[in-house]
C-alpha cells in the first residue's frame, strides 16, 4: 500500500506493515526530549506517585533552556532541580548551551525515520530531519517516560509545495508567516504538514528547522521534510549516522489530504501584526510603524543562519537612536561560530545587546521581558498578547533580515533596499 512519509514512520514505530489515516495505534518512541520548564519538575511527581522509573534512560534527552540563566530565585531552584534529576536518572543532559529544538539535532540526536516526542509545543522541529516529532504535555510525557509508548491517531498529510526560488532578503520565517496568514493557525488541523518543492530543497537545515518548528503555528502535529543529501550531511557533521535516507521518502502515489502550491519567487518580506502569526501581510502594509525593541532570538529566529542574515543588514550600520536591539543566539555553538566569523562583532558595533543562549523573552522568561506599551519587532515564532512581557506590549513578527532592518530604520522596514545598497563604506 502506498504510504506518506508520516505513515511509514508511524507504521514502523507501531510494528505494523502499513497504517492509514484515522487509525489509532500505539507507537514506541525512539527518543523523548524534555526541558527544564515542562520536564523534571512536572514529570517526576507523577512518576513518583506511580512508583515507576524511566523506560530507557538512553532514550531520554534533557535540555535546560527556559529558565536559563536563572534570573530569579524561582528559576534558579528549577534549574537546580533539573540538574539533580539529570544526575540521578543518568540521562543525556545539556545545561544552558542553547534552546532544546536547536541543541537536539546539533548534538546528533535526530535522524530520518525516528518517532520522537518532545515536551514542548515546537517539537515539530524534528520533522526537518525526516523524523516524526511532535509536542506533548507533561502528563502525557510522564506516561511516555514510564512506558516508552504513546497512542497516536494516524494523521492525514497536508502537502505544502513552494515552487521556484526565494528572492534575496526572504527567509524561512517569511514562508511560515505567509502560510499562517493564508491557512490560519488551525490550517494544519493537527495533521502531518509536509513541505516540499524547489524552494524547500534549496534551504539549509537551519532554515528547514524554522519551517518544521512553525508547523505548530499552523496547528499541524508535525512538519515533515523528506530527508535528502543536505539532511544527511548535517547529521554526519553533528556526529550522527543518517542511515539510508531512501527508506524515508513518501510514496509518489500515497493519498494526500490537501496540496497547496505557492510561488516562492513572488514572496515578499512578511510581517505579522499583534497578536497572532496569522496577521501576516507584506512588509509594505506597515508604512509608518515605529519600534522600541528589536529582538533577534529563539529557535526560529537566532540560529547561526539567522544571525548571519541579521549581520548582513547590520554590518557598517547602527541601531537607530531610541531603539534597543537584543540578540539572544539560539545555541552556544551557533554563537561561537558567529563569533569566529565576525558576526558577533557586527552586532556589538551596531549597538546590540547580546543575551544568553536560551528561550528568553520569546516565551516571556528572564529580565529582558517587554515593558508596558512597548512595540517590538521580533524574529520569534509567536506574538500572542502578553507572551513576551506586559499585556500592553505589541509584538510584530518578521524575519531576521526585517528585524535588523527595522532596528536600523527605527520603524518597520523592508530589508531589501539595505541589502541592495550594501553597508556604508
Ligand atoms: C514553556 C513551554 C512549555 C512552551 C511550549 O510548549 O511551547 C514554550 O516553549 C513556548 O514556546 O511557548
Briefly, what is this?
GO terms for molecular function: 3-isopropylmalate dehydratase activity; 4 iron, 4 sulfur cluster binding; metal ion binding. By secondary structure, this protein is of the alpha/beta class.
Task: Explain this structure.
- The chain has helices spanning 5-13, 40-50, 73-89, 100-106, 138-147, 172-183, 198-201, 205-213, 229-237, 304-314, 332-340, 343-350, 400-409, 416-421; strands at residues 24-28, 31-35, 60-64, 92-95, 115-118, 132-135, 149-153, 157-163, 192-196, 222-225, 258-263, 270-272, 280-282, 293-297, 324-328, 353-354, 375-378, 394-397.
- It has 425 residues and is an alpha/beta fold.
- Strand 2, helix 2 and strand 3 (60-64) form a beta-alpha-beta unit.
- Helix 6 (172-183) runs parallel beside helix 8 and helix 10 runs parallel beside helix 13 (400-409).
- The radius of gyration is 21 Å and the shape is globular.
- The N and C termini lie far apart (61 Å).
- The protein binds 3-isopropylmalic acid.
- Residues 37-38, 66, 120-122, 359, 363 line the site of 3-isopropylmalic acid (IPM).
Amino acid at each position: 500500500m502506498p504510504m506518506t512519509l508520516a505513515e511509514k514512520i508511524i507504521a514502523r514505530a507501531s510494528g505494523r506493515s502499513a497504517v492509514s489515516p484515522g487509525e489509532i495505534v500505539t507507537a514506541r518512541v525512539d527518543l523523548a526530549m524534555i526541558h527544564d520548564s515542562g520536564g523534571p519538575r512536572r514529570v517526576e511527581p507523577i512518576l513518583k506517585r506511580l512508583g515507576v522509573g524511566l523506560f530507557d534512560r538512553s532514550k531520554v534527552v534533557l535540555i535546560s533552556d527556559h529558565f536559563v540563566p536563572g534570573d530569579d530565585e524561582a528559576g534558579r531552584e528549577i534549574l537546580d532541580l533539573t540538574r539533580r534529576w539529570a544526575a540521578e536518572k543518568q540521562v543525556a543532559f545539556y545545561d544552558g548551551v542553547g534552546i532544546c529544538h536547536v541543541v537536539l539535532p546539533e548534538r546528533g540526536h535526530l535522524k530520518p525515520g525516528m518517532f520522537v516526542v518532545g515536551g514542548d509545543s515546537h517539537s515539530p522541529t524534528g520533522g526537518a530531519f525526516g523524523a516524526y516529532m511532535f509536542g506533548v504535555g507533561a502528563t502525557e510525557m510522564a506516561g511516555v517516560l514510564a512506558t516508552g509508548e504513546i497512542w497516536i491517531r494516524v494523521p492525514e498529510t497536508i502537502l505544502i509545495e513552494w515552487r521556484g526560488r526565494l528572492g534575496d532578503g526572504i527567509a524561512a520565517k517569511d514562508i511560515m508567516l505567509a502560510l499562517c496568514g493564508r491557512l490560519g493557525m488551525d490550517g494544519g488541523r493537527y495533521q502531518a504538514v509536509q513541505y516540499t518543492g524547489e524552494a524547500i530543497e534549496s534551504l539549509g537545515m537551519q532554515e528547514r528547522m524554522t519551517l518544521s518548528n512553525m508547523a505548530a503555528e499552523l496547528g499541524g502535529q508535525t512538519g515533515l521534510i523528506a530527508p535528502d543529501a543536505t539532511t544527511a550531511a548535517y547529521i554526519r557533521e553533528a556526529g550522527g549516522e543518517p542511515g539510508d535516507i531512501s527508506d524515508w521518502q513518501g510514496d509518489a502515489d500515497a493519498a494526500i489530504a490537501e496540496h497547496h502550491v505557492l510561488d516562492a519567487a513572488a514572496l515578499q518580506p512578511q510581517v505579522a501584526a499583534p497578536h497572532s502569526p496569522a496577521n501576516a501581510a507584506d512588509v509594505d502594509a506597515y508604512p509608518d510603524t515605529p519600534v522600541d525593541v528589536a529582538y533577534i532570538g529563539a529557535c526560529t529566529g537566532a540560529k547561526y543562519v539567522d544571525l548571519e542574515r541579521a549581520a548582513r543588514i547590520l554590518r557598517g550600520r547602527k541601531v537607530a537612536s531610541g531603539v534597543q536591539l537584543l540578540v539572544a543566539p539560539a545555541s552556544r555553538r551557533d554563537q561561537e561560530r558567529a563569533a569566529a566569523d565576525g558576526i558577533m562583532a557586527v552586532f556589538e558595533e551596531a549597538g546590540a545587546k547580546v543575551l544568553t543562549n536560551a528561550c528568553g523573552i520569546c516565551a516571556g522568561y528572564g529580565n529582558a521581558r517587554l515593558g508596558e506599551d512597548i512595540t517590538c519587532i521580533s524574529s520569534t515564532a509567536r506574538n500572542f498578547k502578553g507572551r513576551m512581557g506586559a499585556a500592553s506590549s505589541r509584538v510584530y513578527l518578521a524575519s531576521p533580515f526585517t528585524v535588523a532592518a527595522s532596528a536600523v530604520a527605527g520603524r518597520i522596514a523592508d530589508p531589501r533596499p539595505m541589502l541592495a545598497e550594501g553597508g556604508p563604506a
